[in-house]
Amino acid sequence: MKDENSNGQGKRKASEEPDSPSTAKRAKHSQSTEPPETKNPPAPVPSAPAPASAPARIPFPEKPAVVEERNGEIEFRVVNNDNERESLIILTGLKCIFQKQLPKMPKDYIARLVYDRTHLSIAIVKKPLEVVGGITYRPFKGRQFAEIVFCAISSDQQVKGYGAHLMSHLKDYVKATSDVMHFLTYADNYAIGYFKKQGFTKEITLPRSVWMGYIKDYEGGTIMQCSMLPRIRYLEMGRMLLKQKECVHAKIRAYSRSHIVHQPPKQWRGSGGVTPIDPLSIDAIRASGWSPDMDELARQPRHGPNYNQLLHLLNDLQNHQSAWPFLVPVNKDDVADYYDVIKEPMDLSTMETKLEMDQYPTPEDFIRDAKLIFNNCRKYNNESTPYAKSANKLEKFMWQQIKAIPEWSHLEP
């Protein structure tokens, strides 16, 4: 089925919204052509707090991707398989990038989805039709979400801010041309950090009935969600946050002297070098209420000695393909008699909370709760059910991970 967004040939600036899908098909989204405001050099530090009405202006640091787009060196094109020559050239370029950057993904599978007419792609294109990166996604009409299937930038172009700028373009385009307000994607371990920076989270708030069975489950991937805000213009989000930061700093300066830079102590001004001094001999430190005990408290470790290894193990369990029945507590509205049968329920999200609160002083305490999850599952569900099979697979995986840690080699199932 051909997507309704496939016929228009217009281009627009990033500062404009497409009026309709037909005007947004091959959209060149350039940033505003106005040069950034010229900033005056900061005035000498005053001896009293500066008035809130005259905050110091912070220059907006533009990424190379934004500058290149404004200069016409790159453009962002939305394409699908509409049999047009340029569309097929761009899709082929995307296919080659995805196949190179995602070596674990079957090449024929990548090609099939990129050329699939139910999918759309947004590509970063240099003249003449050189594709340097892009995203392939599938919108689900009437369900208000889209699945990001592939996302990659050429390896020699990954330091220019292309990835973040590409995602901002995608969000603005999708909001303006469809009812989609949420993205779902399966991210591998290398991509989780990127998606987190783009507003994605591992906490899935969309009802499972909306997306379950519609998107493909990738083994070893972590499902992530991004919900867009209707009033946010994502291409202008950096400037908006900068303005908010300036306003907050202005409010702080109206009530605080924290922005004032003081001269170093007189003992350090001579040629004798730096000598130890009593911190409380400095008026500003003494006025802040600081005491040496605060430093001692700050140096204390936040968590116990096993925290990092247990956190790593818990993350591995949560990301395993068989963990889906155990990620959150069982909903009593879905399984009415569950809590009549299971008197001591446990799940992976509860274990995560307990771990953060240092309630697992030893690995044995952690394993005890994990085994509780598996035993509860086998107690409530028949051994032939997918739930019991998932419990067996996840428990086997847990012990494989434990045996790989030399300090825990003495632990037994």
Structure, explained:
Among the domains are: 173 residues, Aminopeptidase (3-Layer(aba) Sandwich); 103 residues, Bromodomain-like (Histone Acetyltransferase, Chain A). The protein is flat, with a radius of gyration of 27 Å. The protein is built from 14 helices and 6 strands. It has a 6-stranded mixed sheet, sandwiched between helices. 25% of the residues are buried. Helix content is 37%, strand content 11%. Its main location: nucleus. GO terms for molecular function: histone H3 acetyltransferase activity. Belongs to the acetyltransferase family. GCN5 subfamily. One of its GO terms (cellular component) is histone acetyltransferase complex.
Biggest beta-sheet profile: 6 strands, mixed
Radius of gyration: 27 Å
String of helices and strands = HEHHEEEHEHHEHHHHHHHH
What is the CATH fold-level name of one domain?
Aminopeptidase
- The count of strands amounts to 6
GO biological process, one term: positive regulation of transcription by RNA polymerase II
Main location: nucleus
Keywords: Activator, Acyltransferase, Bromodomain, Chromatin regulator, Nucleus, Transcription, Transcription regulation, Transferase
GO molecular function: histone H3 acetyltransferase activity
Layout of SSEs?
Layout: H1 64-70, E1 74-79, H2 85-101, H3 107-115, E2 120-126, E3 130-140, E4 145-153, H4 162-177, E5 182-187, H5 192-197, H6 208-211, E6 222-227, H7 237-255, H8 283-288, H9 292-299, H10 307-319, H11 338-341, H12 348-356, H13 363-380, H14 386-403
Parallel strand pairs: 4-5
Antiparallel strand pairs: 1-2, 2-3, 3-4, 5-6
Helix pairs in contact: 2-3, 10-12, 13-14
